[in-house]
Amino acid sequence: MNKKLRPTIYLSSFHDVTPELLEKHGITGLLCDLDETLVGHNQQDINNELISWLDSMKKNNIPVCIISNNTQKRTSQFAHRIGVPYISMAMKPFAFKILRGAEVINTPKEEVALVGDQLFTDIRAACNAGIKSILVDPMGNQSMWYVKMKRTREAKYKKHFTKGC
Q1: 8 Å CB contact between 5 and 158
Q2: pLDDT single digits (tens) 13-45
Q3: In the structure, what pLDDT confidence band is assigned to residue 162 with cuts at 50, 70 and 90?
Q4: CATH of domain 3-158
Q5: What are the domain boundaries of the chain?
Q6: Element (H or E) spanning 17, and its range?
């Protein structure tokens, strides 16, 4: 199996990422994909689960930064509404904006993890940047056609992963 596609941790959802789990893995800062990771594709609605999760991260001094391949407008509007920094047009799986995200949250890259729903963009980007990765199942099924095609390819890898820490 390609090591660049193996996540450090595989969970069902972002809300399974807890301060206790992060501490266990030496993670003190998070970079989070936006679409299909924190909310459905291009959704602006912020649900109570997301607010509660962000509050938990904040209370435990775990900075969060959104890092998305989506547009400046989409990413900034959402990030401002939840009060976190962001990087848009991240060009994942390339590493340079992932490393910039670690700087934005002022966390050494050895203590940063990227939370995302895609192996070929999010998990590979984390690996390319030399940081930990947390794969979560995608929210909803409103992905773009090309993402849906990648999901079929991802399935053959994901069957080898075990959920949990």
Answers
A1: no
A2: 999 999 999 999 999 999 999 999 999 877 788
A3: confident
A4: 3.40.50.1000
A5: 3-158
A6: none
Where helices occur in 17-60 by DSSP H, the ranges are 19-24, 48-59
Quickly count helices (H) and strands (E) in the chain: 6, 6
For residues 95-127, one letter each, b for 16 or more C-beta atoms within 10 angstroms of the residue's C-beta and e for the rest, the string is: bebbbebbebbebebebbbbbbbbbbbbbbbbb
Question: Residues with Cβ < 8 Å from 81, sequence gap 6 or more?
Answer: 44, 46
What is the value of pTM for the model shown? 0.90
Long-range CB contacts (< 8 A, 24+ apart) of 151-157? 153/120, 154/118, 154/119, 154/120, 157/1, 157/2, 157/5, 157/6, 157/119
**CB-based contact 17:49 (threshold 8 Å):** no
Tokens of 71: 């547009």
